[in-house]
Amino acid sequence: MCRNIKTLFNFDPPATNDEVRDAALQFVRKLSGTTRPSKQNRHAFDHAVEAIAASARELLDSLETTQHPRNREEVAAKAKAKSALRFA
User: Which structural domain range is residue 32 located in?
Assistant: First the structure.
C-alpha cells in the first residue's frame, strides 16, 4: 500500500508526534490521490490528517509488547544494506 509509511511502534526513543503526523499525511495523500488538495478541499484534507494522526497516536500509546524496543539506527542500517543488495 503506502511504501513510505514506516513502522512506528516499539522503538527507543518512541515515535514523535511529527513522525505520526507525517505517516498520517502520507496515508491521506494515498487515499485522496493528491499531494496538494484544492483550496476547496483543504479543510477536509487537513481534518483527515489530524484525525488519523490522533487515532494513530492513540493506537501507538495503547499497544503493548514483551519485546525489547528496537534501535532506530540498527533498523535503518539493515534497511540500507537490504536496499544496497536490491539495487546493486
Answer: 12-86
